[in-house]
Amino acid sequence: MKTTITLAAGMALLLSTASVWAQNAGSGAVQPSAPPAPQQGVATGAVSPPTASARSPEATRPVGTRASSASLNATDKLFVKQATAGGLAEVQEGQLAQNQAQSPDVKAFGQHMVSDHTAAAQKLKAIVDAEGLAAPTDVDKADQKQIDALQKQSGARFDKQYVKDQVAAHKKTVALFQKEAKSGSDPQLKQFASDTLPTLQQHLSAVEALPQK
Question: Which CATH number goes with the domain that contains 78?
Fold first, then answer.
């Protein structure tokens, strides 16, 4: 009798254990999935990188440009001023020579001054504009006085005065370009001066060969 009860109790315990196991298995015994990864910049409060429009002016300035002419040395600044104004004067005086000179050689020289100095002025202006530099837009007072005096001359008298003025002007201009090529600080201005020097030296030699009497 005792054996029967013990056996019955054991069977009951086994059935109870099996029932519990079955309930756990029936629940799926699935481990909870990991929470979804937070989306950057949405729920976590992360800040997105700034757009191009939010960058500082220094970050958006094109490489190679200059905010001001503060980095130029005194030689550069003087060169830009005098080379620009002098080039304008050479063109105006060359135009006068084409119209008012008597000698065909002086007329031809004036024509060369117009074409060569116009081309040089365009190259210099491209550098000046690209680097945001300040340059004169007209001849200086001394050159204007010289132009006014030439306008009152014609024929042989014009030839004599024009040639005399051109010899002096080109000696001064050659020295100006030599100084910039040697002592300037801006690479583009130095290169422009160096490249233009041979033409200016040819001008000086040509005008010195013209009759000055």
Answer: 1.20.1260.10
How many domains would you assign to the chain?
Answer: 1
In a domain, residue 23? The reply is no
Packed helices 155-183 and 104-130: angle between N→C axes, nearest 10 degrees: 30
- From first to last of its 213 residues, what are the pLDDT tens digits of the chain? 444 444 444 444 444 444 443 444 444 444 444 444 544 444 444 444 444 433 433 333 343 444 355 578 999 999 999 999 999 999 999 999 999 999 999 999 999 999 999 999 999 999 999 988 889 999 999 999 999 999 999 999 999 999 999 999 999 999 999 999 999 999 999 999 999 999 999 999 999 999 886
